[in-house]
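The protein record minuted underneath.
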Amino acid sequence: MIELKSAEEIERMAVTGRFVGELLAELSGVAAVGVNLLDLEHHARRRIAERGAESCYWDYAPSFGRGPFRNVLCLSVNDAVLHGLPHDYVLRDGDLLSIDMAVGIDGWVADSALSVIVGTPDPADLRLIEATEVALEAAITAAQPGGRLGDISAAIGEVAHSYGYRVNGEFGGHGIGRTMHEAPHVANSGRPRRGLKLEPGLTIAIEPWLCGSTDKIRYDKDGWTIRSADGSRTAHSEHTVAITASGPRVLTRRPTHDTGSAGPAAKSAAAS
């Protein structure tokens, strides 16, 4: 069942969203050559505890995966794109890192992800990250009241294809609010003017993710980490968005300028 949120409930989700955006920006700054993934995980655990928030990932046990997830971040490196388990790995120059997190504060949830390049950026990696960021912004623009869910999906697919990337249809965005995963499913490719009508109060996580040269995936033996089937680099961008009468409202904007290609990838390039 799809629950439309009131204006007051969206404001409560926005409180969570601000924290998620701030912490993701903070983590993207901490990620550097020589930093262990476990350091990022424990940094996030401390910040979440200090805020009095709760991780939506801890003890998460969907149909896939091996046992409950016992981390607060998904950290996916290079050819890993989704659900990467934080582990004893020291970031190297040129690594492409995707950070995904979802937390709840006072019963309301927000979910967001970004990809960054650690150290020296490869232009192909910058382009891949940019494609996910531009696709996310296009999808947000398409999330207009009175439109259709297919408008969002089509916007993502159109951008991905314009960059020359193929889209995997197995994982996408989702409804969000009281829990991390609610109806509806938000596909990363689709047909405009089709599907669920977008009504004010609908809250969704939109999350384009792409592999460099394939739309096929494989799982690690841990049952969680999803990688490109051919070992190509991957990237992932996500925001929690509310449909309002005046248009889409992004609840997880980060405190730095975050619009399309002027996101983390561009920051990494400038820093180099």
